[in-house]
Q: What sequence folds into this?
């Protein structure tokens, strides 16, 4: 079983960078503006990341031609998906959960910059159990749970 408290601590600096971007740029801008600001903030804080990281699903041990692009892959284990929408919905979560599963990333952060505050949802992938957990440690039944 994974240690959620340890994973939360591991992601604090990335969440801090998200909050810094929100504080600086405020609400109401285009998603691409927040992505660029986030990249600048990650670099300024010395947090390792890849932007638009390409990942391939694997079938029977063989990488498929299909490509998914992660908004950000931080510290080699944190997927950050940025949105600027009225509200996050189950499709946004399903996208993140699929990416976490394919990339075997321990942490997934789904961020909405559109509200007056940064709406940040945190999820954790238990590799051994092959399940996604919410920030309270509850197992989600399927990729559309919230």
A:
């Amino acid at each position: 079983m994974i240690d959620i408290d340890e994973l939360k601590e591991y992601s604090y600096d990335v969440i801090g960078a998200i909050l810094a971007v929100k504080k600086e740029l405020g609400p109401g801008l285009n998603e691409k503006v927040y992505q660029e600001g986030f990249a600048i903030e990650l670099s300024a804080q010395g947090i390792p990341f890849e932007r638009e990281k390409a990942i391939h699903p694997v079938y029977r041990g063989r990488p498929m031609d299909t490509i998914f692009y992660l908004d950000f892959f931080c510290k080699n284990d944190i997927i950050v998906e940025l949105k600027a929408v009225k509200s996050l919905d189950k499709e946004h979560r399903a996208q993140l959960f699929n990416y976490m599963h394919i990339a075997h990333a321990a942490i997934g952060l789904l961020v909405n910059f559109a509200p007056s505050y940064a709406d940040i949802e945190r999820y954790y992938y238990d590799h051994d159990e092959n399940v996604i957990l919410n920030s309270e440690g509850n197992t989600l039944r399927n990729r559309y749970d919230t």
Observations:
- The chain is about 35% helix and 30% strand.
- The longest helix spans residues 4-25.
